[in-house]
Structures are given as C-alpha cells and as structure tokens.
Amino acid sequence: MMLGEGQPLYASGIPTISSCPIPDYLCQVLPGGGLDRLDPDYAFQQVETFARTVDLLDTMPRGEIGIVPFNLSTVIGDLL
Length: 80
Known about the structure:
This protein has 4 helices and no strands. By secondary structure, it is an all-alpha fold.
C-alpha cells in the first residue's frame, strides 16, 4: 500500500491532516480561472480550521504528538 509522504506518520499511529486534497477540476484551465467555483465562506472555514490546528500543535510537547522512528532500510527501499 502506498500512502505518500504521510505513510511514516500513519505507520507510527500519528494522525495527519491533508492540507491540499486537490480536486481534479483544479488541474483544468478554466475561463476566468474558475473563481466562480470558489465558496469564500467555506474556504475561510477551511483556512481557519487549519490555522487553529497548527496553533494547537505548536503548543503541544513533541512526545505528546508522536515520534516517527528512523528506519534506514525504509528510506533506501523508497529510493530504489
């Protein structure tokens, strides 16, 4: 199973938050840049929630958040 850059955190039991889910339509070239699809209130809620989460994490001790163990064989395996 390939989870991407969050995989070591997931494997260590550390919750993650995706900051950029990127829907397919964002990869299209649309007239006017597609701004008519933007819901400003919803976008504000998303940014505000993410900012509150970062603020909360900044106040937590590292051990409370979790530690990803370094595994050289995993790093080398990912490079090959």
